[in-house]
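Q: My collaborator sent me two sequences in one message, no labels, and asked for predicted structures for both. Can we handle them in order? The first one she listed is below.
A: Yes, handling them in the order given. First sequence, followed by its structure tokens:
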Amino acid sequence: MPVGEIPMDVFMCIAAIAHPDTWLALAQLNQATRAEALDLQYRALCVSAGPMDTLTKDGVGFPCMDPLTFGHLLEQENHPIARVRHLLFSAWVMSFDGVFERCTGLVSLWIDDDGGGASSAALRALEALPLLRELTLPVRWRLNGVSLRAVTHLFLCGVEKLVCEWEPATLSTFPSLTHVGFSCEPQSSAMEAALAFSDTLRVLVRGRRRQGPASPRLVHLSWTIMDPYVDWLLRFVPGWMPAWACARGLRRSWDQWTLCDAIVSARERGELQAEQGELSNDVLDHPELVAGVRGERK
């Protein structure tokens, strides 16, 4: 069947699971495919001042650009980059002023900040993102006077550099919060405060377990097999799989939040006990949770 005769919704479902390198080629087919293909090209974007090997090596092919290019494209009227849905800033790259006013369709935002920060105006602009559900921020950022009602998943990075007590009151910024995570184990008081925030809030801690309360809602996951950027792509780019996962016979791999939910649910059913240490984030280490992750027929 000629490409032009394929219904557009069917065509874009096929394109969405294709390798990212094909999206620009699809954009050249005709006017009908151009806008849709460019939307795919920029649905998940990393802005970084330095090379991002994880997103570019081994043919992963996801767009990664420097902050000057990103800022230039964002200033162009009707450029598809403004329709980005999943945006990652690696290290301190820009002030963020004006970014969130233009990228109003953001569903997830990750700011991995090593020395910069956002102005109060930029932080207030986050309130105007009606679709923002998942947010990763440096733990030292303060969101005083900001209310992010749509956010359900909050992940705090830079915890290993924390030199002062984390303020549990930060969680009141997120009235719809269902999950909170830390990039490594914080003070025991921080984990206890997070668990006390809500009877249903699930708390994820990455890395080694050294202390802290035992709770079925507290999950420690190691960094066994995936780095954070691959984990991010698995969650926000449906259909994409890293080459190593395909080579191991996996039909799908699970991001940290999906695995966290599976572990907590299994504990609530009485199938698992609260952990004594950190758990692997390799799905093949949890056959009782992820039956059928391999591609073999049974």
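Q: And the one she listed second?
A: Here it is, processed independently of the first:
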Amino acid sequence: MRKLKLLTAVLSLLFILSCKKRQNTPEIITSKASVIQDCVATYLKLEAGQTYRVCNLTKAETFKTGEQVSVVYYLINVCNGGFREISCYKTPIKEDGVVYITEIKVQ
């Protein structure tokens, strides 16, 4: 009986240790969008209608407002930046979230 309890305990421990934690990796999204540059931030207006603020401004700073782009991005919850240092007194555009761009190019 003692060996059975020990075997059960060892198997239970091995089972628990063999489980991997699921990594919290972001979902990479590819889409077509229109760039919106204003004095507050840079935004992407997707074909589906959502508007997202770009966190990493340097990726999109060379594109002009209205330019059609193909973009690869993922949604983020926290962005340390994404607003221009020198901005105007303007209400920011209503956004549906914040994105981090991994790749962007003209269509």
